[in-house]
Amino acid sequence: xxxxxxxxxxxxxxxxxxxxxxxxxxxxxxxxxxxxxxxxxxxxxxxxxxxxxxxxxxxxxxxxxxxxxxxxxxxxxxxxxxxxxxxxxxxxxxxxxxxxxxxxxxxxxxxxxxxxxxxxxxxxxxxxxxxxxxxxxxxxxxxxxxxxxxxxxxxxxxxxxxxxxxxxxxxxxxxxxxxxxxxxxxxxxxxxxxxxxxxxxxxxxxxxxxxxxxxxxxxxxxxxxxxxxxxxxxxxxxxxxxxxxxxxxxxxxxxxxxxxxxxxxxxxxxxxxxxxxxxxxx
Length: 282
Fold this sequence. Notes:
Blueprint: E1 7-8, E2 16-17, E3 27-30, H1 39-49, E4 56-59, H2 63-72, E5 75-77, E6 80-82, E7 88-91, H3 94-102, E8 111-116, E9 119-123, E10 144-147, H4 154-181, E11 184-187, H5 190-200, E12 206-209, H6 210-218, E13 224-226, E14 239-244, H7 251-261, H8 264-272
Parallel strand pairs: 1-5, 3-4, 3-7, 10-11
Antiparallel strand pairs: 2-4, 5-6, 7-14, 8-14, 9-12, 9-13
Helix pairs in contact: 1-8
């Protein structure tokens, strides 16, 4: 086992797609995990346009964890090393792209905006805690399913939303005071954990991407949504970036994927899942 490698939680095998043929992959994608619901269709359409790219290994883990994996050169999963080098990385953090530039993992400026998203508040059916505004998350009794900023880039957008709604005091209240009291519960992979907590009513609210509410509804979860409002939901600030890693093992296929993900075909698929595509179109 390699010292210094990050550990992928043992129950996250469903975020490691086609692991069986990772050693013979024609393309390796590290996709920001909040795209998990759309990736099967994206991959199918990509392969219909580029049928020569037969074997694709892709991850849908939190992009912060994927970034650690890139910088370390691998990760540990169930006691075994995954040493695969990705061709493509996507993130909702411009800082992540800067980190890769500084580490010499991508060329300066060689990242592309291709998508937007916005935040929503998922609550149990009927909204029993009477959550109406972002400020309500600061109330003593309100239990929050909160993405962990150590691994999940969405957490920084959520904290920006808190700050915009209630300043440093609300951020401190939710992220430190309520966590110490056990009413802010961090997630490891929020897009899977938060809907389950809402369904079990072990929390009263969970800030998520709006796209995750679309997916959760499609998969049978019953819940309500409280909209933060356009001035708070970060729709103008949530930018998805894609880059090709320097020394990519499959550079030609990587470039094909970057071209595809920015195409009208891929953008249409993303919109069907609730994502916001750039305007004007790419």
